[in-house]
Amino acid sequence: MSDRYQEFANSALGKLVIKNLGLPMPLELERFDPNKPLINGAVLLGAAPGSTLGGPISDVLNTVHADTYAGNHAALQQAAAKVGLNLRPYNSGDKESRFKVMIFDASGIQNSEQLVELFNFYSPVARQLLPNGRVIVIGRTPELCSNPKMATAQRALEGFVKSVGKEFKKASTAQLIYVAEGAEANLESTLRFFASAKSAYVSGQVVRVSAGATQKIDWNAPLAGKTALVTGASRGIGEAIARTLARDGAQVICLDVPAQEADLQRVAGEIGGLVLPLDITASDAGQKIAEFANAESQSKGLDVVVHNAGITRDKTLANMKDQQWNLVMNINLSSEERINDTLLAEGALNANARIVCVSSISGIAGNLGQTNYATSKAGVIGMVHSVAPTLANGVTINAVAPGFIETQMTAAIPLGIREAGRRMNSMSQGGQPVDVAEAIAWFASPASGGLNGNVVRVCGQSLLGA
Ligand code: NAP
Prior knowledge:
Elements: H1 4-9, H2 12-21, E1 43-47, H3 54-63, E2 68-70, H4 74-83, E3 87-89, E4 99-105, H5 116-122, E5 129-139, H6 148-167, E6 173-179, H7 188-195, E7 205-209, E8 227-231, H8 236-247, E9 251-256, H9 261-271, E10 274-277, H10 285-296, E11 302-307, H11 322-345, E12 349-358, H12 362-365, H13 371-387, E13 396-402, H14 408-411, H15 415-423, H16 433-444, E14 455-458
Parallel strand pairs: 1-2, 1-4, 2-3, 4-5, 5-6, 6-7, 8-9, 8-11, 9-10, 11-12, 12-13, 13-14
Helix pairs in contact: 3-4, 8-16, 10-11, 11-13
Bound molecules: NADP nicotinamide-adenine-dinucleotide phosphate.
């Protein structure tokens, strides 16, 4: 569905009106284009004294051929030289340079007094971030810091990043990555995602990178040779997920209810995928998926499972019928639990498989008329947190929580609420299905073995539940 306000705001007349009335300005978001560099502009790198992540960060920047600058910082220069990154000098008095990405290694911050290092790095260059820019702060996981003063200071980074996300505007994003000691080699997939246009509609998020088996991959085809199951793949977000995982090289098993088989055939046909018409609430759904993957897929099992199928049946609690409660709970949560249990019990998940669930900001913030939906989507988050530590064999589970995404589901929302949903976020617009799909592809990557139990919102930093 088209966003008429955004179209008007980006016209010559619209720009004038919007500026004079101080209305929200939804800039067009830059999205991933394989024909452009992953980081499409200069990177400014900084670090607090005593930080230890300069090496892994430089390594990633070197691999993606980023045009990287830093002020006079001996430790960073040494770390960069070690991995062969050409760190160009940046003079702090220079107000003309513009940067696409500003990365700060905060891992050396030991106490609250040292948080001023964040201010010292970002404040002088705050006006020099390009539109669609990226602010990335990298620290140490607070819960794993043995010193309470350091844990406190590291936790404080969250407030900084979330405020920058709201303040910098012009479609820029701000994220915080916590890296556990010993998990430095697992930083790459997350840094690539957050520094690139793939994370266009993700902002104000906190990700924990832990130790875990991460495989070396071809970054242009990270899922080559892998088989991915996507539920609800006939349209909307599910269709975008299927297309994105196929772009990344996966053979995709496209699943949807039998009534959607024609659309399912269309999507699968266009991406060279397989078709599995199936209702996920069937008691033997997990068994059927396992048998199908074993018999039909190239990898004789599943490497990626995306639980995307979901429904709403909105009513206030007083007006809700029991079947509206039961159906939503069964499709959005219970069937996912049953399918996971069966796939794990049957050994249908290959080593290092990725389970990625689709929650919702409704499950984080709650929503009027959505007691059933919000309960089911909060349950998805609970499932991710509780199942993650139980998984073995390199298998991981994570979730995305979309905000307002332009699909049939949101087109059905009454106009007033729809407009509020679109504007009440740092991007002043709804996201596209591909924005959710890119976040899922990042979790699904064999290089994301250090991500387990994370929930990332794809909501343009919606005010709801923030
Ligand atoms: P959608 O356009 O309604 O697509 C969902 C698909 O799942 C439909 O094809 C649907 O088929 C299918 N499905 C429903 N029940 C099923 C079942 N029992 N077995 C197999 N397939 C089933 O929804 P969407 O907007 O793309 O949303 C996808 C996911 O994102 C959902 O989990 C949703 O809750 C979540 N989400 C969406 C938004 C948003 O803004 N759009 C925001 C937050 C979260 P039918 O034709 O039978 O319905």
